[in-house]
Specification:
A hairpin with a 2-residue loop joins strand 3 and strand 4. The chain is α+β, with helices and mostly antiparallel strands. The chain is globular.
Length: 143
């Protein structure tokens, strides 16, 4: 799949609450496309895409809080060498916030959010839902 940066910069700024797109500390190269998307709520999506022949061969999309704490990570790098680290949607999977070590029990299958566009939509919709409830889901109890 080709990179989605051009669409992001032209369309999503007008349609959704994307605050800015910044360069990452490590610059993009011919093989690696890197950007940081900063949302209005100050969370960031670190976008790293490995490019082969003009298409994304694999990616890392890491969503973090303003304090750089992991919220979710969407990755598409295959773990062919060790089947214990694979999900049924390999190479697509999601790391949970506490999953800094690779282990299949800390990774989620990723059936639907496999493009930068769908991940950005998820983040923006999630933010809208949280905002509608002043940051507290109605089914959460204060025990």
């Amino acid at each position: 799949m080709p990179t989605f940066f051009l669409f992001c910069s032209r369309i999503l700024h007008r349609l959704f609450s994307i605050f800015a797109m910044e360069m990452q500390v490590r610059p993009s190269t011919k093989e690696w496309a890197r950007k940081t998307i900063v949302f209005h709520n100050k969370t960031k999506l670190y976008v790293t895409e490995h490019i082969e022949n003009g298409y994304i061969s694999f990616y890392y999309y890491d969503w973090v809080t303003p304090n750089e704490e992991t919220i979710l990570k969407w990755h598409s790098e295959s773990h062919d060498n060790d089947k214990r680290h694979q999900t049924s949607t390999e190479p697509f999977y999601v790391h949970l916030p506490d999953s800094e070590t690779l282990h299949s029990m800390y990774r989620l299958e990723n059936f639907e959010h496999q493009t930068l566009r769908s991940i950005i939509e998820f983040i923006l919709y999630f933010d809208k839902v949280i905002s509608a409830f002043d940051g507290q889901f109605p089914y959460m109890s204060n025990q």
